C-alpha cells in the first residue's frame, strides 16, 4: 500500500505544499512573496499575513495536481522550525486544524532536516534515489552555514557551523551596499559570470576546526568599498562585475576550504550540498571540479529544491512517519529549533 504524505512549509516567505507518494514527488506548489523586495529583506509581519492569504489555495492546488484526495493522505508533515515565528504559526496552525478535523497524524519537521535530504527528491516518473550513508552535507543558506555528518535518514551530527553570519547573509548584505537590491545573492551570481574573480582580494577568516565566520569578510569588503569610493565616486558602477566575481570567489573558497578539511578528518567522500546558496552557479562549478579532482561522489540538488519548499518537508515526514515519530497536536513551533534535537519533537 502506498504511503502518501502532505507537506506544508511556511518558515519564511515561501508558502508551499506538496504531495509525496512513497518518496516520489507528485506535486510541489510554491508561492513566493514579492512584497519584501522593496524593503530590502523579509518583513515578518507581512510574511505571516501573506501566508494566511495563500496557504489554503496552495494546499488545494498541491492536492489537485497530485490527483489526490485529502482522505488518501496518511500523514501531514509541516515545518516546526526554525524560522520566523509568525510564519511558522500559520503553517503549524493550518496543519493542526487539518489533522484535528480529519484524524490524519501530524509530523513536525525540522526545516534544516529537509534541506539535508533535498538532493534525494525525485519526480514520480524518475527512479528513486538510492542513499549511501554516511555522507557529508554542506548546508548553505541565508540563515545557516553548517557541515553536517549524515549517518542515516534520521541520524545527524553537526561538525561545523558559522559562529556569526551565514554565507547567504554575506551575499545579501554585500549586494545591498552595492545597491543590487534583495535578494542579492542571485544578482551577484549573474554579474560574477562576466567578471574577473581575481581582480580584488578580501580577507578570509582564520577559524580553527570546521566552524565558519563571515563577519570579518564582510568588514573587509565594506572597508574596501569605502576606501575606493573616496577616490572614485563611481567605483562600484565601474567595477560591479569584478566586485561580484571577487566576493563570490572569496565566499566559495571559505566554504570549500572547510569542506576539504572535513573530508580529511572523517575520510568520508560521499558529499552533498543543500540550501539556497547551493543554487549559486559558481559554487556548483567549483564544488563539481573539486569533487572530480578529489574523486568524491557528489550529490547536487535540483535547483528548484535548493530554496524553501514543502517537498523536502514531506520527504522527511515520510521517514519520520515510518519510524513512528508522530507529533502531539499541542506541539508548538519554535523560531530557534536545535538541529541536534530533530528526533525529539
Question: What features would you describe in this structure?
Answer:
- The longest helix has 32 residues, at 235-266.
- The two termini are 27 Å apart.
- The strands form 2 sheets. The protein has a 6-stranded mixed β-sheet with strand order 5-4-1-2-3-6, sandwiched between helices.
- The chain has helices spanning 44-65, 85-102, 111-117, 167-177, 185-192, 215-231, 235-266, 281-294, 310-322, and strands spanning 4-9, 14-21, 24-32, 75-81, 106-110, 122-123, 135-140, 145-152, 155-161, 270-274, 297-299.
- It has 2 domains: 4-121 and 305-341, Nucleotidyltransferase, domain 5 (2-Layer Sandwich), CATH 3.30.420.40; 135-300, Nucleotidyltransferase, domain 5 (2-Layer Sandwich), CATH 3.30.420.40.
- The chain is of the alpha/beta class and 345 residues long.
- The protein is globular, with a radius of gyration of 20 Å.
- It has 9 helices and 11 strands.
- Helix 1 packs parallel to helix 2 and helix 4 (167-177) runs antiparallel to helix 7 (235-266).
- The mean pLDDT is 93.
Number of helices: 9
Rg, please? Answer: 20 Å
Under CATH, the homologous superfamily of the largest domain reads ATPase, nucleotide binding domain
Write down the overall mean pLDDT.
Answer: 93
Q: What is the percentage of strand-forming residues?
A: 15-25%
The structural class is: alpha/beta
- Helical amount: 40-55%
Low-pLDDT residue intervals, each spanning 5 or more residues = none
Succession of helices and strands? EEEHEHEHEEEEHHHHEHEH
Side by side, the strands of the main sheet go 5-4-1-2-3-6
Amino acid at each position: 500500500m502506498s504511503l502518501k504524505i502532505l507537506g506544508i512549509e511556511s518558515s519564511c516567505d515561501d508558502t508551499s505544499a506538496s504531495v509525496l507518494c512513497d518518496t516520489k514527488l507528485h506535486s510541489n506548489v510554491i508561492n513566493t512573496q514579492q512584497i519584501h523586495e522593496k524593503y530590502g529583506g523579509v518583513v515578518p509581519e507581512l510574511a505571516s499575513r501573506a501566508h494566511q492569504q495563500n496557504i489554503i489555495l496552495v494546499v488545494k492546488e498541491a492536492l489537485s495536481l497530485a490527483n489526490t484526495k485529502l482522505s488518501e493522505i496518511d500523514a501531514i508533515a509541516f515545518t516546526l522550525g526554525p524560522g520566523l515565528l509568525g510564519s511558522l504559526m500559520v503553517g503549524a496552525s493550518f496543519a493542526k486544524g487539518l489533522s484535528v478535523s480529519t484524524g490524519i497524524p501530524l509530523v513536525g519537521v525540522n526545516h534544516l532536516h529537509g534541506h539535508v535530504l533535498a538532493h534525494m527528491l525525485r519526480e514520480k516518473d524518475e527512479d528513486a534515489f538510492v542513499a549511501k550513508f554516511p555522507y557529508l552535507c554542506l548546508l548553505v543558506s541565508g540563515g545557516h552555514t553548517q557541515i553536517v555528518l549524515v549517518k542515516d535518514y534520521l541520524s545527524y551530527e553537526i561538525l561545523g557551523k558559522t559562529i556569526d553570519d551565514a554565507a547567504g547573509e554575506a551575499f545579501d548584505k554585500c549586494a545591498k551596499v552595492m545597491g543590487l537590491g534583495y535578494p542579492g545573492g542571485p544578482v551577484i551570481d549573474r554579474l560574477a559570470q562576466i567578471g574577473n574573480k581575481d581582480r580584488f582580494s578580501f580577507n578570509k577568516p582564520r577559524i580553527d576546526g570546521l566552524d565558519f565566520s563571515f563577519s570579518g569578510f564582510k568588514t573587509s569588503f565594506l572597508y574596501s568599498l569605502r576606501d575606493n569610493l573616496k577616490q572614485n565616486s563611481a567605483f562600484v558602477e565601474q567595477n560591479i562585475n569584478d566586485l561580484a566575481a571577487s566576493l563570490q570567489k572569496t565566499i566559495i573558497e571559505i566554504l570549500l576550504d572547510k569542506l576539504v578539511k572535513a573530508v580529511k578528518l572523517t575520510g568520508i567522500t560521499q558529499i552533498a550540498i543543500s540550501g539556497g546558496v547551493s543554487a549559486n552557479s559558481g559554487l556548483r562549478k567549483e564544488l563539481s571540479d573539486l569533487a572530480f579532482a578529489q574523486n568524491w561522489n557528489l550529490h547536487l540538488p535540483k535547483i528548484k529544491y535548493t530554496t524553501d519548499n514543502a517537498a523536502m518537508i514531506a520527504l522527511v515526514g515520510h521517514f519520520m512517519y515510518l519510524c513512528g515519530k508522530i507529533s502531539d497536536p499541542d506541539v508548538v513551533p519554535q523560531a530557534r529549533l536545535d538541529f541536534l534535537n530533530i528526533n525529539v519533537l
